[in-house]
Amino acid sequence: MSEFDDAKKNLKDALEKIDEQEYYRRLENPERFLEVNFSVEIDSGKKKSFTGYRSQHNTARGPGKGGIRFSSDVNEDEVKALSLWMSLKCAIADIPFGGAKGGVVVDPENLSESEEERLSRNYIDAVADFIGVDKDVPAPDMNTGGKHMAWMMDEYSEDNRKEIPGVITGKPVEAFGSKGRAEATGYGAAYVIEKIIEEEQLEPGNLTAAVQGFGNAAAPAVERLEEIGVNVVAVSDHISAVRDPEGLEFQELKQAEEHGIVNKDSGETFDNQEILELDVDFLIPAAIEGVITVDNAEDISADYIVEIANGPTTREADELLEKQEVTVIPDVLANSGGVTVSYYEWVQNRSGDYWDREKVLDKLRENIQSAYMDFRELRDDENLYGREAAYMIGARKIVDTMKSRGE
Question: Which positions ≥6 away from 272 have C-beta within 8 Å?
């Protein structure tokens, strides 16, 4: 079953639970979906063709919002599923955006930096009529980052003969970006864990965490968890994993990450697939989707799963985790820090009033912890599984907005 099928079935269940199933036909597919084919000049001087997508799932609550990923695995179903998740995520975070997503089918490891720039600019040219400050605001995603967003913002501005920084978020601070944006996704997930610790009256020093991944979202989560006092005992990248029952040092891991591999000198190395089965308090899948499946869900030993990656757990695995009484903080809540600070960046771009890092992160903490408390209250009051509660909150807010607009 595809990711899009999973997302639609979860949405359908949520709409039935809030007695709004008649809205399923409207929300099961995106409002608009664009496929583009465009050419890019590669360094040899030859032209190469690429396929790109942009999905706008629902814009009732505001302009579309969602990243652009560069990956050879990008496909129509994936982009549609991610745009649906973005609609829910923005609603759960209670920010005035709808859901969107985009991508280009490409292996970025085979591109030079100049080819990446031309690809970024030509993709934006291809979708330019589809996006806009009040229409759809892209951001970085898998294998894209601040430099790509700066190129895309610059290209869109050149096309329109005026500076339009608010059309893209996730830009470098030097190119109209927001301070605190780079660490927002990881910090947001850590702020949720911080709230769990506070509400459960736990002692951080007695808690352990394992983080699958050490990229743009995972690394800041490790950093913030260390600051909170939680012992991060295992971290993995795409090559290997390292563990130390006494806790790993963030700075040592960060230095090693520059070489593309977790530092074997930080602790014991082991198979990176085994990280999901470690007996820890918090398991944090923060790399790719579909890693917790029916094949390994029964081997999960963590008390909490806090999903930073998009869609790391399949629908069938959810059923097993619920039976095992594993508490899941789903992706549409746990990784909403990135889109929340993207919203702050969009506000700053439009107002011209730029905030310091402390203000951005303080606002993020307040926002995501408030969203978590709403989620926890519904989950506990109605004895729901975590993903059910999150989808119900998101679906309710979207439907209420659509009703108020007469849609």
Answer: 212, 236, 237, 238, 239, 240, 241
pLDDT at 272 over 60: yes
The pLDDT-based confidence of 320 (bands split at 50, 70, 90) is: very high
Which tens digit of pLDDT belongs to each residue from 242-270? 999 999 999 888 876 555 556 656 678 88
Kindly give the pairing relationship between strand 208-212 and strand 136-140. Answer: unpaired
First-to-last C-alpha distance (Å) of the chain: 30
**Which uninterrupted H or E stretch holds 332?**
helix 331-334
Q: What are phi and psi of 43, to 5 degrees?
A: -60, -25
Show which residues are catalytic. Answer: 101
All domains of the chain, ordered by start, with CATH? 19-175 (3.40.50.10860), 184-329 (3.40.50.720)
For residues 176 and 158, give the distance between their C-alpha atoms in angstroms, rounded to a whole number. Answer: 15
Residue 362: both structure tokens together: 């303080």
Cα angle: 45, vertex 48, 49; to 5 degrees: 155
Q: Edge-to-edge, what's the strand order for the sheet holding 32-41?
A: 32-41, 47-58, 98-105, 64-71, 136-140
Token digits for 238?
A: 């795409």
- Rounded to whole angstroms, the Cα distance separating 171 from 152 reads 9
Residues in the chain: 407
Q: What is the DSSP string of 358-372?
A: HHHHHHHHHHHHHHH
Q: At what angle do helices 3-17 and 386-404 cross, to 10 degrees?
A: 70
91 near 397, Cβ under 8 Å? Answer: yes
Dist. CA 212–CA 233, nearest whole Å? 11
Assigned token pair, 78 = 């994936």
Residue (of 223, 193, 211) closest to 283 by Cα position = 211
Distance CA(378)–CA(330), nearest Å, equals 14
Q: State how far the Cα of 340 lies from the Cα of 332, in Å rounded to an integer.
A: 12
Model pLDDT for residues 171-217, shown as the tens digit of each residue? 999 999 999 999 999 999 999 999 999 999 999 999 999 999 998 89
Q: Cα–Cα distance between 175 and 140 in angstroms, integer?
A: 14
